[in-house]
Amino acid sequence: MEYRRLGNSGLIVSALALGTMQFGKGMNMGGLGQDETTAMIRFAVERGINFIDTADVYSGGESETLIGNALETLGNRDELVIATKFRLPMSENFNRSGATRVNILRGVESSLKRLKTDHIDLYQVHGWDSNTPLEETLRTLSDLVRQGMVRYIGLSNYMGWQAATALGVQKQLGLEPFVTAQMYYSLVGRELEYDFQSCAEYHKLGVLVWSALAGGYLSGKYTRASEAQAGTRFAEAGQFVPFDWARGEPILAALRTVAERHGVSMARVAYAWTLSRPAVASVIIAARKISNLDDNIAAADLKLSPADLELLNTASDPGTPYPKWMVLQLDQAEDPRPKILEPEKFEDGGPWKDLRFK
């Protein structure tokens, strides 16, 4: 297993994180019970994963409850990095939704109880809340860190301007900063590169990737002509992630070629490609079966060659929209001014050197 820094923090996490939407029966994403949850967490930890990601909304809190019970049984809570999220509705009550102070405080207390822990390592806002003053959200999250209930905070599903605005407010007010951004990113969904990836690199946000297989599509099991079988993850929730089926066909062909070169699954190659991308701190993997989880974890050890990456990048290239193409042209233009090196550009890597451990 490879380990990386969690964004602009000193915390070290596995390059692959265990996703948990399949734990519990409320989301049609797996329906795994307590025994299966405990077994899957045990297996992941034995294979080097120290990072588990969940959310209060997963099966209405059942995922967190199953994880808490599993960690109590395994007795390894203090060895793991536990991340959860808040923001989405937990009931029909207006005030049990959003990024308000009242909902954040209620949410963190409830998550702590379900997870059977006294702190959450990474607490993430599950999306932008346009109804709540941003300062209210950020001050409350900062309070949680300073009170010891939460160690670090992150954002999820923000646009680039939203993340940059939040980070600016945090710096201006002396609040705890976001250190991670949990975002969708895959070979058939590279929109992250249009704008947000540059924001993440500039602000040293660690990107936590969700749905790197595009809901299972990049496993190669499904095509436009063959309908997904009832009960499969793709049939139930895979198309939650939109993509262009026509564009997907050459991407699958490239994936298949690279997979055959290495004698591995297409899913493993798709995960390995995502791990190779800039600003990615960890890629969230999930499976219903231990055998599938085993194959996914092996992606951390798969090293793609320059030829592999060129083939995958070319097949999945979405083009460069304006204004990014203009920004790139300006960056590449001759500039008579002397170059001023930023800290991370110094020969020794500077204070922001990306630490990677084996």
Provide the descriptors you would attach to this structure in a database record.
358 residues, alpha/beta, TIM Barrel, eight-stranded parallel β-barrel, three-stranded antiparallel beta sheet, 12 helices, 11 strands
CATH architectural type: Alpha-Beta Barrel
Structural class: alpha/beta
At the first level of CATH, the class is Alpha Beta
Please indicate the percent range of residues in DSSP E strands (runs of 2 or more).
5-15%
Amount of helix: 25-40%
Low-confidence stretches: 349-353
Head-to-tail CA distance between termini: 6 Å
The number of helical segments is 12
Assign an overall shape.
Answer: globular
In the residues, how many domains can be counted? Answer: 1
Across the major sheet, the strand order is 3-4-5-6-7-8-9-10
Largest sheet: 8 strands, parallel, barrel
CATH superfamily: NADP-dependent oxidoreductase domain
Q: Provide the gyration radius in Å.
A: 20 Å
Rounded mean pLDDT is 90
